[in-house]
Amino acid sequence: MTVLSPRPDLWTLDPGVLHLNHGSYGAVPRRPQELLAELRAETEANPMRWFRSVAGRLAASRLELAAYLQTDPAGFALVPNASAGVTAALVTLDTAGAIPAGSRIVLTNHAYGAVLYAAERFARINQAEVVIVDVPLEADDATVVAAIATAVDDRTAALIVDQISSATAMVFPIRQLAELCGAHDVPLIVDGAHAPALIDAPAEDGADFWTGNFHKWPASPRATAGLVVAEKWRTATLPLIVSWSERDERLPERFDMQGTYDYAPWIAAPESLRVLAELDWSRRRPQLSAMIDDGAKLVAKALGTGVAEVARPAATMRLVELPFDGVPSPEAGEAFKTKVSEELKAEITLTAFDSRVFVRLSAHAYNSPHDYELLAARLPTVL
């Protein structure tokens, strides 16, 4: 098999920095950046003409993005990020009276912090309860489903589950969980923030609501994400901002026109999909998986620790344990990342799970094995 070469030339990333945290904010390639700049210049050249053109351009962009996800375009709306998508789903359930007093919103201990906060808000509003199911890192699909099944019953208002967890880079069995929820008539909300480009057709698994970011692995401009809504909920699902599209009977169009929002990222997003195609992403992704496997082992060996044993790890992320005595405070964690950035010229992120602290490493097409070799040499010097 031909090994594809890294393509940092397609990005404008600082070559003097090790960029090892694509999973947080992504990195936009050069061509989508240029298109974004052109669209914003066009906006300022004639704002009236620009806003007259937005509806048609958004419709074209949505069709391309929905086709990439292999999902029904009639149920696909654009949102700023996956957190907004989850919130829109919870608003829909709340408005429909599907979160009654005494009910339970179920999540796992892998849930993203902002998603947990959203669940807590709607539970508080409705005098409901948030239930957290413990799922071990090493749990296989059957164990994951069995653990979650213990909390899914006639009191469950919704199950919110990651498709790929942010904190642990673990892939969850969405299809089986959709079957579980379907059997109990429980709405399923899937936080697929990391799923586009890492999982093929991520929104096809029968969830009531699925949401995922294009600004992560597809490398689209930031504040670009999708919300996929099952047909039974489409009429009731409304955007978080009440604007002029409020009375449009079509789900996607209701979410399109949010006043003077900056629509350029949504319109430019498909250009990033064309960059992925140029990168031969379907062949490159498994090669990045092999590279991140080797790179994580190298860093772990240098630290005298190990790579977390995740039953189904995400294609391009791995967890390397840090030799910390306990979980640092958020302030201490940020200070450590800043120190690594300034002293080692490396961008990383930390995650914590079950009293363990990890560096969550990423791999994208601009990375090379040498990046992980350099991190392995440098990181022990600041511990």
Automatic annotation (TrEMBL):
Signal peptide: none annotated. One of its GO terms (molecular function) is transaminase activity. Keywords: Aminotransferase, Pyridoxal phosphate, Transferase. Residues 82-301 form the Aminotransferase class V domain. This is Aminotransferase class V-fold PLP-dependent enzyme. It comes from Kribbella sancticallisti.
